[in-house]
Amino acid sequence: MSIYDLMSIGNNAMMNAKLGINVTSNNMANADVKGYSRTTVNYVSRSPLVRNSLQFGTGAEAESLRRHYNYFVEQQYLASHGQQQYWNAKAETLYSVESLFKQGDKNYGLSVALDKYFSSWNSLTQDADSSAYRMELKEYAKTLSTMLHTMSKSLKQELQATDKAIELGVADANALMKDIAELNRSVLGQPENLVLQDERDRKIRKLGELLPIKSLHQSDGSFTVITESGQTLVDGIEAFELAVKGPEAQAELTTGSAFKGEVKFEGQGSKEYKIEMVKGGALGTAEFKVSIDGGKTWLTDENGVERTFKAGDADNKVKIEGVNIWFNNSSPATDLSKADAFNIVPKSGLYWKKTTAHLVNITPRGGYGNESGRLSGGRLGGLFAARDSGIASYEERMEAFTKELIWQTNYQHSQGAGLAHYKETQSTNSVVDSSVALNKSNLAYANKITKGTISFQAYTAQGTPDGARIEVSVTPGMSLDDLVTAINNAPTTATAKLTASIEGGKLKIKSKVADGSFEFAGDTSGALAALGLNTFFSGSSSSDIDLDARIKNDPKRINAAVVNGLGLVDHGDNKNALALHALVKKGVTLDTIHTNTSRTFSQHLSTLTALVGADMDGASRNKVYCDTVSKDLEKRQQSEAGVNMDEELTNLTKYQKSFEAASKLITTANEMFDTILQLK
After folding, report:
1. Helices 601-641 and 71-101 meet at what angle, rounded to 10?
2. E strands within 168-247?
3. Residues facing 540 on adjacent strands
4. Phi and psi angles of residue 297, each rounded to the nearest 5 degrees, phi first
5. What are phi and psi of 384, to 5 degrees?
6. What average pLDDT does this structure show over 504-530?
């Protein structure tokens, strides 16, 4: 080995030490940079020299820089962190909703307002003519209405905020997918650029916060990113997209089905509806069943019997949780076949753009981790779950609760009489077309109208009964025009005492006798309550419930009494007030797919309050658990990828010593060379 070889070994050793110092210094400088992965130098021995059958080492050289990153642990972290973000988003969203159902600092929430409302009816039974008790009832009813308004408005605001958060999250996800694809392109062009790889892994982590993903390391150095349910988000240098879209309806007809029409719907709901025909045939004959979990189970009645519905046209819509469903047929008409299916999405959803023209619905149905082909984790999954299985379902339950409270109160109130007779009155609710059957009209309670009788009692100018009760027969298929005619023609055996007309779609009734008056003496058909005549509340939902304007203006219109058999309204009569207070203990079934159990109003409200609390508690507990797992996996990743300052200081000292040793080797070789030059 020559002196030159010694100097070469020393020079390489010095360069290796310098590179080691450079890499170590860079690690130390980036110790606090989030997502930075520490780097070390891989050294290999150089090829030896062979002289006289002897091998002489030639030192070492830097082969490559190694980026410390455990991709196996990272896959576990992405899965766990995606779950943590799912529960975190759900818990954050439900937190503000839970406060709406709590009693508050002054212990006066919706449940207390409901109790006060019913107890004020009980107070009125003690003295039915008392103006003080009537004012008390009026004020408690207004308070209850106001709190229901506030609840409705707040839930709608929460839904809007969640929808906005979803839109922003989808925009962020699409931007990240494009960034990852571009970074893949850059890494393919600069495979040795570790900064690009760090940046790519940071982007993948951010995407993993929004969506449940897996990242697959390809042999060319690029990454393929897919959702846990199998949708490709990034494939090398190609980025796919997500979109918020809806509502929509799609058909899944059986092979050989002749149906060429389409399913239609109006309204919004928290669930997706899968409709499947159980009986084929023409519209009006065919029947279908409904599922809200993709066909795993089907809606049943309170006895557990599977419900079926007639497939009707626009005049025969089926209403399910605020969504009206009907079919438009083709021309000529075609029949539906058994097992024909339709998917209705009455809300905005998340769609994966498989191609420009082909969008796949990946919206969560509310569960976690068990929905084939659907999003089941990540922040976006949590927002959808909080919106659909949380806020929207709570809103639907509250709407059903309020709608039933209004109906039960109004139906019973319409059976009674107040302290003053009517000279004329007009319905609160109007119909769009007075020739349409009442049970198929636009009235919110059209489906409540049954076959029955509306009774009236007419009075003279002196307030004495003017003949017998006037009975008007009502059938569900009767139109408002028909009802007007029936009232005007009653009684058929004597001079008509009342006159009815329609003004602006509203039914108007007035005494036909000069200075005469009349009273409602009962209604077994429900038509009065549906039309808003002789009722206590107006409206049909949490957003529009209010005291009837007649009662607002005059509490004497509160119907605590009834018309007795002699046609009189007795002073102090509390029969109807007793019946209205009895509603506090009456079991009612809400018109909602979320429950078919008969409970009292207080029990329904308590059950909903408990459900909100349980959902929030469950989300919080799962969030804490997943956060613990994620932190443990992050520690495992950092033990390999993170910068340990003590270790780096040790390496710095080591490379410094190596540099000094290499310098000494070169100095020694140089002295040897000088000695040789001095030889004569």
Report:
1. 150
2. 213-217, 223-227, 232-235, 238-239, 241-245
3. none
4. -135, 165
5. -65, -40
6. 95
Can you tell me the distance from the alpha carbon of 126 to that of 120, in angstroms, rounded to the nearest whole number?
A: 10
Tell me which residue of 5, 16, 7, 12 sits closest to 55, measured CA to CA: 5
Contact criterion met (CB below 8 Å) for 265 and 344: yes
DSSP letter at 421? -
Angle between helices 131-189 and 194-210 (to 10 degrees): 160
Q: Do residues 279 and 254 lie in contact, with contact meaning Cβ atoms separated by under 8 Å?
A: no
Q: Which helix (H) or strand (E) holds 452?
A: strand 452-459
> Is 60 exceeded by the pLDDT of residue 232?
yes
Distance (Å, whole) CA 146 – CA 144: 5
- Kindly tell me the burial class for residue 384, based on how many C-beta atoms sit within 10 Å of its own C-beta (0-12, 13-18, 19 or more): buried
Residue 470 pLDDT level (bands cut at 50, 70, 90): very high
Residue 415, Cβ density class (10 Å: 0-12 exposed, 13-18 middle, ≥19 buried): buried
Q: Which of 362, 420, 680 is nearest to 561 (CA)?
A: 420
CA distances to 338, 478, 507, 540, 637 from 427, rounded to whole Å, are 44, 17, 5, 14, 70
Going by their DSSP bridges, the two strands 359-361 and 349-353 should be labelled as: antiparallel
What is the Cα–Cα distance from 525 to 455, expressed in whole angstroms? Answer: 10
Mean pLDDT is highest, among 99-108, 378-387, 589-598, for 378-387
Judged on CB neighbours under 10 Å (0-12, 13-18, 19+), 189 is exposed
Encoded tokens for 530: 């549906």
What per-residue confidence (pLDDT) applies to 49?
81
What's the CA gap between 206 and 641, in Å, rounded?
A: 18
- The answer to whether 576 and 562 have CB atoms below 8 angstroms apart is yes
Token pair for 228: 């846990």
User: Dihedral (C-alpha) 204, 209, 210, 214: value to the nearest 10 degrees?
Assistant: 50
- Verify cis geometry, omega within 30 degrees of 0, for the bond prior to 48: no
- Residue 107: pLDDT above 80? no
pLDDT at 147: 94
Tell me what pLDDT residue 551 has.
96
pTM value is 0.86
Q: What was the pLDDT predicted at 367?
A: 55
Provide the pLDDT for residue 339. Answer: 94
Locate 354 and state its tokens: 């498989």
pLDDT in tens, 413-442: 999 999 999 999 999 999 999 999 999 899
* CA-to-CA separations, 229 to 213, 354, 373, in angstroms, rounded: 8, 14, 5
Determine the pLDDT at residue 600: 96
Q: Would you say 140 and 113 are in contact if contact means Cβ atoms under 8 Å apart?
A: yes
What pLDDT is attached to residue 562? 96
